[in-house]
Amino acid sequence: KEMTAMEKVMKNPLQSRWALWFFKNVKSQPWQCNLRLVTAFTTVEDFWALHTHIQLASKLSSGCDYSIFKDGIEPMWEDSRNKRGGRWLITLSKQQRHSDLDALWLETLLCLIGEAFDEYNEDICGAVVNIRAKGDKIAVWTRDAENRDAVTHIGKVYKERLGLSSKIVIGYQAHADTATKSNSLTKNKFVV
Amino acid sequence: GKKQYDRDFLLSFQYMPACV
Fold it and tell me: How many of the other CB atoms lie within 10 Å of CB of B11?
């Protein structure tokens, strides 16, 4: 017991409490039944304990998602802290599942838990990785699609952290636009 | 203060025995 208390004291606390969610597409069930809260964590050490024990994103089957959101925010557009927001979207080719996906997702997680976005960390809601046969996607969700300064700063930092070439353009889409159009037709509100 | 951690600091914990 003493050791546990000691370990608690010595762990490195994160700025935010984060929750990991898992989604598995079972078509016979309503969407919300397919979404499960896995666990929440508040320290660097507990993040790694979790990350080390769960399946890599690249090993999940098609139709599955991992989401990491600040505790209390549900990983859906409808949540009050998401609905006016949007996402920086990274679309991957099929080949990149094996070459890049896990590293890009880990980098995304490190950006979030490390609070990499300077004065705009409070605009971050979470991040999602979608495993899909036609191509996987990673997105960072922010709370206010109208906050140009926050959104563009986050986009620039995120793109740099992912090590994307300056020739690659990534786009930010408001959830309100994504919700009313099919993905391929959603226009980018911002690009970096 | 705000707890911001750079990637190298975070990665240094990745393979610590206490974490597995």
Answer: 14
